[in-house]
Amino acid sequence: MSRKSIWAVAFLGVAFASLVADAPPLQAQGPRFQITFARSARAEPVTGRVFVVISRTAETEPRLQVRNTGVPFFGRDVENLGPEEPVLIDASVLGYPVADLREVPAGSYFVQAFVNVYSEFKRADGHVLWMHDDQWEGQNWRISPGNLYSLPQKVWLDASQGYTIELNADQVIPPVVVPPDDEWVQRFRFQSPTLSRFWGRPVYLGATVLLPRDYATSTMSYPVLYNQGHFSLRNPLGFEPGNALYGEWVGDDFPRVIVVTFQHPNPYYDDSYAVNSVNVGPYGDAIMEELIPEVERRYRIIGQPWARLLDGGSTGGWEALALQILHPDSFGGTWSYCPDPVTFSEYEQINLYEDENALYKQYEWRREPIPQQRETDGKIRLTWQQRAWYERVAGTHGRSGEQNDIWSAVFGPVGEDGYVRPVFDNLTGVIDKDVVEYWKRYDLLFHLRDNWSTLGPKLEGKLHVYTGDMDTYALNNAVVLLERWMKTTTDPHYEGHFLYGDRKPHCWRGEGTYGDRIREMAGFMLRRRPDGVTTPWWQY
Asked: HEC profile for 150-165?
């Protein structure tokens, strides 16, 4: 699901530029921004997407305020744009949440230009695509190294009078600084041969590893928890010296395990969903055949299925389920929190199999917007029409780096132009039923139902699912359908473990601390270990 906000932590050391005082704008026939990028910032031409962002406040830079519930921004694609060559953003350019520059009320605003730079990918399937090449920031164009931006300016905008605001993107976002290793947390990355062949240029996989107490002085091997989630260089499980988990982790009465988070950003999103995809690439193979073996080569990990667990929330919750279901012999159990849609008959309140439109429900003579986000009291925060519109402004051809675009990229077919063939049109909402048919192969409920005779015996006792019953994205509805079906299973009859938080939002993980959950997992492995296997990691 949606990434946690990182705007406030991005580039804290960069001082805010001096703001230009209100000044009379150049006269024009209508509202428009003329945007260039400086030769001093980039000498080469740019193929990519150019934005202007408008904000009433300067608490953070306007570019860092762009989100699906954020400030107005407007964008257009550019091809082979040279330094100092102007790009016009005017009333013909679609924006979000304000569609037309003429609809911006007269007033004083902070404005900023931004250039998202694309790179050429000569993919193994023969298609040539222009995409944003992740720079280890997690496919987030607002903070991606090498992208260009202007210093924020304070201006007066009045569409009724017409204006031309000139903005020059002369700033370059610097490279990501990877935190150094210490005695508890280590990081590594490597170029993936499999993914680099698919994309036609270097693509990287990585991991962040949380080590148990006394790892450096012991010789034993340890169980591992593969903790799934969005791209982040932060410590696994929020581990930090001095916090509650740290106090438990270093204690004498805590089981010794290794926790690993994966990094697998790609040209479409900050995360691949850990499956093979015709659009995103063979990430399932790369994770199972390259990344996990590399982790278990570098660290003393038991490397047996019973001692290899999965967990994760939201996107990571879907992955934690999918990896267990699709590779039942490789993992010993999964804890999935608030997973993304486990069946597409409940795709965040859209039934892709039965509905004709993803933005509106038609009730005889009435057409009602479909909610996409809600509060725990049921109030609507965002509709699907707004969400789809936001992604369309952020990027064309599935290049927004956002949630619905990555689902279409992971689950859907390739379009004739080589880009994603979307499951629905993000302006009209019309659902493409041929694409929905393709999506079925990634419907986890369908996969379980169709393969239960072989999967059931391998999954028995391994599935643990947690979600709030007022999940922000209504993801609990799909979980309910999965639970209902599992109650009907035979040979074996296995209902799984499902727990719902009363009026809890996205992403509820059950009661207690993460330390409590690690203890639970350790006890689970202890009970399911093969006969005769010793467990020194359990003996404190």
From this structure: CCCEEEEECCCCCEEE
